[in-house]
Amino acid sequence: MTEIHCLPGTMCDERLWHEASEHLGQNVRLIHQAIPFENTLDGMINCLLKRLPETPVNLLGFSMGGYLAAALTVKHPHRVKRLMLVSNLATGLPESERQQRHVALNWVATRGYSGIPRKKAQSMLGLSSREKNPLIALIQAMDATLGEVSLVQQLTASLQRPDLITSLQALEVPICVLAGTEDNLLSSFDRQRLKDSQVAEVFEIDACGHMLPIECPQQFAQYVMGYFDSLV
Description:
This protein is α/β, with parallel strands linked by helices. It is built from 10 helices and 6 strands, in the order βαβαβαβααααβαβαα. It has a 6-stranded parallel sheet with strand order 2-1-3-4-5-6.
């Protein structure tokens, strides 16, 4: 049995993997690892190290969970057998994104949080999926379950993100990156920079946005099986 420990993205829970898991073979199992409730990146990494087996693991991270998985691998490469980043390029946050997060945190602090708006959820999907109500409902449901406290914690803890591409280049851990061609949260500049670095195999799924595991679950599952099974 190939076990893969999976870190979700901001305001996502184990439902992120449910449909994709149905398309996996009997010999592949996704193990959900919730984002630790810690206020710093190092705190989250230390918490995960206590949860994960001491022997090297297969590690998959989606979005913010992808950055967290990459940071853990950089700091403790002996704990990771192989790594897959989904909808994340292991780069730092641009200044514009940091400013947007500060605005969001200030807004929540003064006015509270009433959940992710429909338009924001739609913007995380590819063009052909933006009117798919079950997908939008799932994004909003995961967000509602985690709530305001988790949002503030996750945004705050992930504000400081040093670029990790150079650090990953120095490792011997196999790395794969999977992204949607219509993921507007990943810049074309950083996509090309990652490809040029040759730090990882980079695969892209056409007509898919940021929420790849729920938007294209069958294709996501195929890439997961193909990558991890090929390295057994």
